Amino acid sequence: MARRCFITFGLLVLSLTSGAAQDAKSVIAAATKAMGATDLKTVQYSGSGYDFAIGQAYNPSSPWPKFIDKSYTRVIDFNVPASRMDRIRMQGENPPHGGGLQPVRGEQPQNQTIIVNANTPWVQQLEIWMMPHAFLRAAAARNATVKSQTVGGKKFAVVTFTGENKAAVNGYINDQSLVERVETRIDNTVLGDLLFEAQYSDYKDVGGAKFPMRIVQKQGGYPILDLTVSDVKPNAAVSIQAPQGRGGAPAPPAAAASGAAPTEKLADGVYLILGGYASVAVDFKDYIVVIEGPQSEERASAIIAEAKRLIPGKPIRYVINTHHHFDHSGGLRTFVAEGATVVTHEVNRPYYEKTFAAPHTISPDKLAESKRKPTFETMTEKKVLTDGNHVIELHHLLGSGHNEGLLVAYLPKEKILVEADAYNPPPQADAPIPVPVSPYTANLVETVDRLKLDVQTIIPIHYAADGRKVTKAELMRAVSRLN
């Protein structure tokens, strides 16, 4: 009897599973037909709108800063699959507010090419698979399931497949069999399991295919793209070629290529660590202080290893964070896992307490594995770290448009100023002076003068591409057109 019940239950589960799979196939087939996706091999669409720089907000509670896309064109080849985006970008925050390489002077061409192969990161592939027609192709090929769901009083068939990062990819299909929304989660070094969503509306029939004339992408709850489509060419003749060369980027130093971060001794007990965004390690009596934990766990791990090699036998007690932008805080979790206390402006503390507690299940990092609780020391306008020999003064760049909590580190004995994003030196010292002058750089100069800091050497976190020593004279040249 028990065996017969077990067999009956098994057949019921199999029947329900088969039914769900069949329902998914029917929903996908109906949407594919309604949207004209069956015969859609390529598409080219153009328009204008806005893009937004994720992780570059003026303060932790602001949206990502906005840029104007004067023109935007994307070509997708669904069969390769491949994609190419070209846009002309212009300043959108006036006055400049936040990061993202502001201020943009004039018109800035940008492009992105994705040709999917075995090594293409999933987050890049999503630029293709989250598009409505591509989503249906992926769902049909990836054993999708379906369920009914009501959102905002509207009923949807929610089709789901599993992405290569093991996170669910959900497509919301309305009663007209049109894909209104696609969402998934991706790993972010700061925010953890980050919601990535795309919303599609204002569908129009174009050459037998239905295509959305409004596309809005969001990450972390804020828009990263808001595009109004003005032209669509289904099955356009396309040729998407891989970019040639390194795009002018300098080759990595030999030490970086071999896995060790290149370093330079700036003064007794003060070391510059390169090989990515710059950091500075300072040898205090009983511990190490690191200025900046940038980019990623990989970069932070390299900085930690090199700091310990240069200053053996001592723990890293403090990591100084210049500001909360993701490229400058993406390695902080690794320092916390190491046992370091984060020193930052007080505006960042509630944000870091929240983000450090966010789940990192898609790609668990060292902090997620260690489960160590972060500790913070915050400041307002000035904070001093000293062991009686070395002194590090931290100053707030009051009034900076780049970031509300932007800090600089000043070593008075060595006359060294460590700064991030207030002045990003050009590749060569004799490069033309930017016009207009960056207000971020002008603010840095004003702060140095106001505080009467005796600066000889400047260490930009975005270090000069030619590896030169940046002096105060070079900084003053950058703002000379203000006089």
Overall 3D form: globular
Q: Determine and state the CATH class of the largest domain.
A: Alpha Beta
Classify the helix fraction into a percent range: 10-25%
Gap between N and C termini, in Å? 95 Å
- CATH topology of the largest domain, by name, is Metallo-beta-lactamase, Chain A
Number of helices: 11
Reported for the largest beta sheet, the result is: 11 strands, antiparallel
Average pLDDT reading = 92
| Poorly predicted runs | 1-19, 246-258
Fourth-tier CATH superfamily name of the largest domain: Ribonuclease Z/Hydroxyacylglutathione hydrolase-like
SS elements, strand count: 24
Radius of gyration of CA atoms, rounded to a whole number: 26 Å
Q: How is the largest sheet built, in terms of strand order?
A: 4-3-2-1-11-10-9-8-7-6-5
Structure, explained:
The protein is an alpha+beta fold. The protein has two domains: 25-234, outer membrane lipoprotein receptor (LolB), chain A (Clam), CATH 2.50.20; 254-482, Ribonuclease Z/Hydroxyacylglutathione hydrolase-like (Metallo-beta-lactamase, Chain A, 4-Layer Sandwich). The protein has helices at residues 2-34, 122-129, 132-141, 254-257, 297-310, 326-329, 332-338, 349-356, 366-370, 439-451, 472-478; strands at 42-52, 66-77, 82-91, 108-115, 145-151, 154-162, 168-173, 179-188, 192-206, 209-219, 222-234, 263-267, 270-273, 279-283, 288-291, 316-320, 341-345, 376-379, 382-386, 391-396, 407-411, 416-419, 457-460, 470-471. The strands form three sheets. Strands 4-3-2-1-11-10-9-8-7-6-5 form an eleven-stranded antiparallel sheet, covered by helices on one side. Helix 1 (2-34) runs antiparallel to helix 3 (132-141) and helix 5 crosses helix 7.
